[in-house]
Amino acid sequence: MSFPWFIETTRVLPGFPLVYRQRCQDVDPPYRADPRALVVRVGFGRALVFGRWRATGFTDEVQALAALGFRGHEKIESDVRTLIEELT
């Protein structure tokens, strides 16, 4: 079992708020997510991300769509699903 809390670094553009909430998505199995991770700017275009991993139960295909942000777009989901099937 892995530790449920995480701290990561990320890059941010100038003008982003000092503190805000953002969805974080794990792109490797077991496909965990945190819909409300805390992002804190630390300067020099960098930020720390604090969150708690939650199980999603996603399959590989659904995870690919979620990571790319295509939920709710049936035409795009269909196209991405076809592409994934062609690649596997």
Give me some keywords for this one:
88 residues, alpha+beta, five-stranded antiparallel beta sheet, 2 helices, globular
Q: How would you characterize the overall build of this protein?
A:
With 88 residues, the protein is an alpha+beta fold. The protein folds into two domains: 1-56, no CATH class; 58-88. The chain has two helices and five strands; from the N terminus they run E-E-E-E-E-H-H. It has helices at residues 60-68, 74-87; strands at 5-11, 19-25, 32-43, 46-52, 54-55. Strands 1, 2, 3, 4 and 5 form a five-stranded antiparallel sheet that branches. Strand 3 and strand 4 form a beta hairpin.
Kindly state the mean pLDDT as a whole number?
80
Order of helices and strands: EEEEEHH
Q: What is the rounded Rg?
A: 15 Å
Strand content: 35-45%
Q: Helix tally? A: 2
Helix content class: 25-40%
Question: What is the structure about, briefly put?
Answer:
It is built from 2 helices and 5 strands. By secondary structure, the chain is α+β, with helices and mostly antiparallel strands. It has 2 domains: 56 residues, no CATH class; 31 residues.
List the helices and strands and how they pair.
Layout: E1 5-11, E2 19-25, E3 32-43, E4 46-52, E5 54-55, H1 60-68, H2 74-87
Antiparallel strand pairs: 1-4, 2-3, 3-4, 3-5
